[in-house]
Design brief:
The chain is an alpha+beta fold. The chain has one domain (4-149): Alpha-D-Glucose-1,6-Bisphosphate, Chain A, domain 4, CATH 3.30.530. 22% of the residues lie in helices and 48% in strands. The protein has 3 helices and 7 strands. The longest helix is centred in the last third of the chain and has 19 residues, at 131-149. The termini are far apart.
Length: 151
């Protein structure tokens, strides 16, 4: 077993960090519309959108492969504009133990930034670090921004 690992990426988000946070918390299914090449389906399996403990189900395409996952919303902090998802089912948890992704919005010098933090442990030393998952998050962040601006 590997050691706990962390990957972080930050993206400037010109369409407003509040908007991005609200989409992920209260309307994550909108990603199917904004990023159809990445997300093909969404369903709320348990709970209520925007509430800790709710379970989300996704159909998505990563590196050309259709996959599914279930995530539980571990923590939402409206003040910090932060949401944490823990993967509980799917192909990714077959490769990474305790896969947790946190999205946080912060404003620096009048610019909103979306920061993605992935925490995980590699199950098998032959598995790669999940750079493709982090890149996936960065790409759909940009796709949401383009969707909001109508480009």
């Amino acid at each position: 077993m590997g050691l706990p690992c962390k990957l972080i990426a930050q993206v400037a988000f010109k369409a407003g960090g509040d908007v991005f946070h609200q989409i992920l918390c209260n309307n994550p299914g909108h990603l199917v519309t904004t990023s159809p090449g990445k997300f093909q389906g969404f369903d709320l399996h348990q709970g209520t959108l925007g509430v800790n403990g709710s379970v989300l189900f996704w159909k998505y395409t990563l590196e050309g492969k259709e996959q599914t996952c279930k995530q539980i919303i571990q923590d939402i902090d409206e003040v910090k504009k932060q949401i944490t998802f823990k993967f509980i089912e799917g192909e990714l948890i077959e490769m990474y133990k305790n896969l947790i992704i946190t999205m946080h919005v912060e404003t620096k010098n009048g610019i909103d930034y979306v920061t993605w933090t992935m925490e995980y442990e590699i199950i098998d030393d032959a598995n790669p670090h999940p750079f493709s998952v982090l890149n996936f998050c960065v790409e759909f962040t940009s796709e949401i921004e383009h969707h909001i601006f109508g480009k």
